[in-house]
């Protein structure tokens, strides 16, 4: 019978800015997430050169309330415990700890909130997995410093990280520095807090900001090991295999080049401690000249990560000559794959792709892998009897978990799996409540109505069985239709 080991970390994943709410409580400052409007045009609006980082009456801002985890965390953690979570991936809102980002002393009230959350997790036997920065840098750093284009943010991030490590040593073992750090290549505003003006070189700004983040991540890793050597520090990347659309050698090369820039550029710096060989040509061809300080390359080399974590939602298909066949995806697009179905939001569904990318990453890096995001955003409907039959989510997760189990049989070391949005929250890409991922339904809607009541979906009990059986139940059941 196929099963994972008893120390496998089953759980769920969230982000502070998407579920906490309380956006002005406890001394919290505004973050870039707080000025991102709700709705399907969110990404278009925030990446427009005229984006001004201000709140506007014509927009709604669902991140301000999230699902009110700020006040209801005990109720939610109890539900996670009921499901059998071994770990819970959460993030800390940087602007709760340093409201502007550049202060020298942290906000004690913000730290006390996370004291309560982490203590509750530990009391319930749930291992906290903490992301230090998850798409929500303090707004002041974006408006007054230009985001990660400014080298000073390295110092501010290291100070912030040290505060967290000192505060939670002995309570938090697993840490991730930046969420989906390679996402900067596709969305510099969300990932780097950089609003690129029309006259600026987007690639120059993006990779300069990314260099600053990579140095900051390495310095945070160094700080963690100085403060508590038992801490485990991981990187976190969007991972997706890139398939050539055909056997045309031009398509094969185009896909190969796209895949290494996406999956291996940041991964090589985090794990191998150096920029990959292919980066030199990419920089030269795109007019990119990185400004580095003396010692930067040594910092990267000497402070590599302990494990590699990833989000996986879909694969990507590419060809050299694009036409009218572009596909949608998790901030990146390729061409439509004729062999795959897609979600309600156009994200192609490819469980085998998870097995493929796990094998590729493990063969390249030989580090433990941790799947910290995977899930299906879908419309859920409450039946007349109050039940929620989300068989489509169960089918999606079952197939992907089987892909993970196959990779483990292939010899890949996978240390855990945390399903994205284990409780419904605000979508990062669209700012919608209606794009639901959770095992737990939250009664809140795009128009702001709803009681915030929590309800267990059918997938809640399904995932409970998966965890209880260490994955064996994946092979015991027929597809729920």
Automatic annotation (TrEMBL):
This is Glycoside hydrolase family 1 protein. InterPro entries: GH (IPR017853), GH_1_N_CS (IPR033132), Glyco_hydro_1 (IPR001360), Glyco_hydro_1_AS (IPR018120). Belongs to the glycosyl hydrolase 1 family. It comes from Exiguobacterium aestuarii. The active site is at residue 373. Its EC number is 3.2.1.-. PROSITE patterns: GLYCOSYL_HYDROL_F1_1 (PS00572), GLYCOSYL_HYDROL_F1_2 (PS00653). Keywords: Glycosidase, Hydrolase. GO terms for molecular function: hydrolase activity, acting on glycosyl bonds.
